[in-house]
Amino acid sequence: MALLIGDTAPDFEADTTEGRIRFHDYIDGHWAVLFSHPKNYTPVCTTELGYTAKLKPEFDKRGVKVMGLSVDKIEDHAGWAKDIEDTQGAALNFPLIADHDRAVATKYEMIHPNADDSLTVRSVFVIGPDKKIKLKIEYPASTGRNFDEVLRVIDSLQLTAKHKVATPVNWKNGEDVIIVPAVSDEDAKGQFPDGWNAVRPYLRIVKQPGA
Length: 211
Ligand code: BEZ
Fold this sequence. Notes:
CATH topology of the largest domain: Glutaredoxin
Strand order of the largest sheet: 5-4-3-6-7
Order of helices and strands: EEHEHHEHEHEEHEEHEE
Bound molecules: benzoic acid
């Protein structure tokens, strides 16, 4: 059965570049990002891991724990980690799973047999502190992901988890948001005392709470 948004993120125990880790213990009430890489020593993955390492302060600021996965052995990760540091100017600063038996990739449906029967696609899962899947994105192996977009979505997920708002097209942190349809105008008066702009009765624009 497909893993869907709202499902509990499967737990697993795996060898990583930071030792043996049980995923649910690692999350430990934080937000988390789990993302897969088709294979070690591949060029696109090398750039993605270097960039994600550079973004670590941004993930930390949002209370997000990051974990990567590649379907190779732990002894192969050390040499690749050195290459990532040398070529991308940033050392790995989060655990990278050595999923050589594809146990985690299988649980998370990261292998799409009609694309490749042994390598993963580029999956990204954002998982909430309640261990539920909040977002899943899948890219083909040949297309590097946009990790600035992952951060943007996390900003939206964290905001909408706290306030009864949704974020419009291309929204960025700090911009106006939308009052969710489930909130009546009567209830909205209490929640958004500074008012809103009702472009349509169902399209109510409001300043981002807390911005
Ligand atoms: C890469 O990471 O560069 C890559 C991996 C598999 C297929 C194509 C590119």
